[in-house]
Amino acid sequence: MRYRKDIEGLRALAVLSVVLFHFEVPFFPGGFVGVDIFFVISGFLITSLIHDEMRDGSFSVFAFYKRRVARILPALSLVLLATLAAAWLLFLPLETVGTARGVLAAMLSAANVYFWSETGYFDADATGNPVLHTWSLSVEEQFYIVFPVLLAAAYRFHRRALKPLVWTIAGASLLACVTLTPHHPTASFYLLPTRAWELAAGALLALGCLPAIAGRFRGSVAALGMLLIAGAVFGLDAEMKFPGAYALIPVAGAVCILAAAPGTPAGTMLSAPLLAYIGRISYALYLWHWPIRVFYVSTVRPLDFSSTVWLIAASFVVADLSTRLVEQPLRRRINGLPVGRVIFGAAVSIGAVSLLAANLPNIAKATRALPPEVARITAFINYKVSKEVSNQFRRGTCMLDRETDRLANFDQATCLRTAEDRPDYLIIGDSHAAHIWRGLSLAFPELNFLQATASGCRPTLHARGEPRCTELMGFMFESFIPRARPDAVILAGRWRERDLADLVETVRTLTAGNSQIIVFGPTVEYLEQMPLLLAHDLYWGTNRTPDYRDRSRLRLDRRMKALLPRARYVSMQDVICPADHCLTMAGDVPLQFDYGHFTLAGATEIARRLRDGGALP
Q1: How many structural domains compose the chain?
Q2: Strands 448-454, 399-400: parallel, antiparallel or unpaired by DSSP?
Q3: What pLDDT, in 10s, does the model give residues 341-353?
Q4: Are 419 and 448 within 8 A, CB to CB?
Q5: Which of helix, strand or coil describes residue 592?
Q6: Rounded CA gap, 407 and 359, in Å?
Q7: By three-state DSSP, how is residue 516 classified?
Q8: pLDDT for the residue 604
Q9: Is 374 domain-assigned?
Q10: Claim: this prediction has a pTM higher than 0.90
Q11: Cα(273)–Cα(277) distance, rounded to whole angstroms?
Q12: Mean pLDDT throughout 264-291?
């Protein structure tokens, strides 16, 4: 197919959306949809090329894979090697494990599967992995392992089945995406079966499966595409269940532009030299910007306006150099080589980088001797998989946190057992309620603490979220609390601004039922994992941990305190940070094991402070 500058401009919009979203630039809450736009572009361009070659009889699966190697591998290998080097230089040895595994998965085109398998409720800190963004490349590569073969087989043996085949792939994948996202959002986000339809949407356009657009409507359709993409970038946000039906917005926008943009005002805008240039370096820019951001935030300081500007500028410079000096020259050279040599060279490259990644933690450990205290503190990044944390949270019993958990998995006999000799205090909410249950039980033996918690589930009458949340909260507010009438109800969660109206209504309703209501405000959170912040400070002799405190939680705390006069409000910010000096250790144990969840020692210390301060009657 002929070269189209407007497609380079569309690539530019996609990569700029992702970069600005990742660097937390305001007003781009849905910038993550740039990946969806890339999927559509890829499906359109590659299917167009395959279809043209099939029609003139020149298509070869091996030649196709050779082109994919030339396009993907040189820049990816360079970025991953640089990432391994930076991790060895800047990270502590145990800290390199996640990076090494991510690089290994990326080289094997399985990064999406790896990050899906590693991402659970306590893994919000996966955003600190410098190769997290390679999940999207793995989705594409998995798609192109199978899709060209299916196209070639259909074209050769049953040509009339070609278009129905692509429609079937697109329809089945879209149905799976819309159906599964509300119940299995993590799997739907990362895995190919629920993403294939986005690539197939571009393929449908390339194969002429979609209605042709009459000339007089092209300008309107292209403009609609721009509006849909703008609506997704500015209107969606990470709190929404995505992809699901929401992904139809950017995908439809990209399809409209690809179908109608040439010769329209939208096409002219997208063909502007600056956008065309950004589109040409978009692959390298996508690869480089995320590790640059992660290493800076992890080892220097949180993002601010100045650092954001400089880091984005640095990403552009490195992407430009990478494109001109590595990606383009090697692509031309690889395209001139026989297929066999290319496959052999790719296998050697993949093997070498994978071998280095697999040995990075050992290399880091052998070349960097840590003081025992630094090593001990660093080890708390693995606390979330310890037996102690399961015992502390009562996961799978009184805290539902798996995607498959439902109300039936909640052990009512254990978690809601009332007592005749002690007052019953029900603590209800998400993991920020579960993490303090055992600490309260130890600090207040004269009280009987009941627990009803589900991850990602704020305790309000109109609870939103996955079925485990809506079912559990519905049962508690509509059935258990009115029937059991606990002496006090403690509402605790990782509160957000959007929860406040529902929380006020919930407090008012429960108070009318003569229950004593206690609200635990948002806990202190950090922009990086607390054990790593503390370990880095110990190792480098710095004091950066206070700089990483998330001050938005303090602002929310002050607002909640003013909004909830009917409840006994407990400011966790004041308990943890008296006089704005935050407690970070509970004895010799970090107070929190990730961005904000308490260790058992931390929960016990906070509960003791609550007792000493008279927070609970």
Answers
A1: 2
A2: parallel
A3: 998 999 999 999 9
A4: yes
A5: strand
A6: 43
A7: strand
A8: 96
A9: no
A10: yes
A11: 6
A12: 96
